[in-house]
């Protein structure tokens, strides 16, 4: 297949795998961080049917008001270790696999591996955008920690 590739992003988050998995699979959490900097993902634009064959959809809204909808189907769910979805509408059926590895000290390594990635998603700009979404996730996790300490 021409014009497709692979991407891998790795990040260590200061949270246990259970919390990270919950954040990645609950609309009330996803709305707080999903998407690159400069976008929002309204709660009414998120669908999570957390089962193999279930729908996973997000509609991000850009600063200019434009929308981008991601439509995927969950392929595998191994709570809290692994989450796999496929975007059948993306050329080649882009596959995203997220693994959550408990580092044993309250931190978790999260590896996002994507295959059948269209060329447009492989650009430096697209990769940088994905990294800003990981930054937003880190900031949201820090907020959760702060709220828990204060309560």
Adjacency order of strands in the biggest sheet: 1-7-6-5-4-3-2
> How many individual domains?
1
CATH superfamily: START domain
Q: Major sheet: size, sense and barrel closure?
A: 7 strands, antiparallel
Mean pLDDT: 94
Specify the overall morphology: globular
Number of DSSP helical runs: 3
Structural class designation: alpha+beta
- SSE order: EHHEEEEEEH
Named at the architecture level, the CATH assignment is: 2-Layer Sandwich
CATH C-level: Alpha Beta
Helical amount = 25-40%
Multimeric state of these chains? Answer: single chain
The count of β-strands is 7
- Relative strand content: 35-45%
Q: Which stretches are poorly predicted, pLDDT < 50 over at least 5 residues? A: none
Question: How would you summarize what this structure contains?
Answer:
The protein is an alpha+beta fold. 28% of the residues lie in helices and 38% in strands. It contains three helices and seven strands, in the order E-H-H-E-E-E-E-E-E-H.
Tell me what you see in this structure.
Helix content is 28%, strand content 38%. The protein is an alpha+beta fold and 151 residues long. It has a single domain (4-36, 76-150), classed as Alpha-D-Glucose-1,6-Bisphosphate, Chain A, domain 4 (2-Layer Sandwich). Strands 1-7-6-5-4-3-2 form a 7-stranded antiparallel sheet, covered by helices on one side. β2 (46-48) and β3 form a beta hairpin. α1 (17-25) packs across α2 (27-33). The radius of gyration is 15 Å and the shape is globular. The model has no long low-confidence stretch (mean pLDDT 94).
């Amino acid at each position: 297949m021409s014009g497709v590739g692979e991407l891998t992003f790795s990040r260590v988050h200061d949270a246990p795998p259970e919390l990270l998995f919950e954040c990645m699979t609950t609309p009330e959490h996803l709305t707080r961080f999903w998407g690159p900097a400069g976008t929002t993902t309204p709660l009414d634009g998120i669908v999570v049917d957390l089962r193999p064959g279930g729908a996973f959809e997000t509609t991000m809204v850009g600063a200019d008001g434009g929308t981008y909808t991601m439509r995927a189907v969950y392929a595998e769910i191994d709570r809290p270790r692994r989450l796999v979805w496929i975007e059948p509408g993306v050329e080649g059926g882009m596959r995203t696999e997220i693994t959550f590895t408990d580092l044993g000290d309250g931190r978790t390594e999260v590896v996002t591996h994507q295959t059948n990635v269209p060329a447009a998603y492989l650009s430096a700009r697209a990769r940088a955008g994905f990294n800003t979404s990981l930054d937003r996730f880190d900031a949201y996790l820090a907020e959760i920690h702060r709220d828990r300490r204060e309560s």
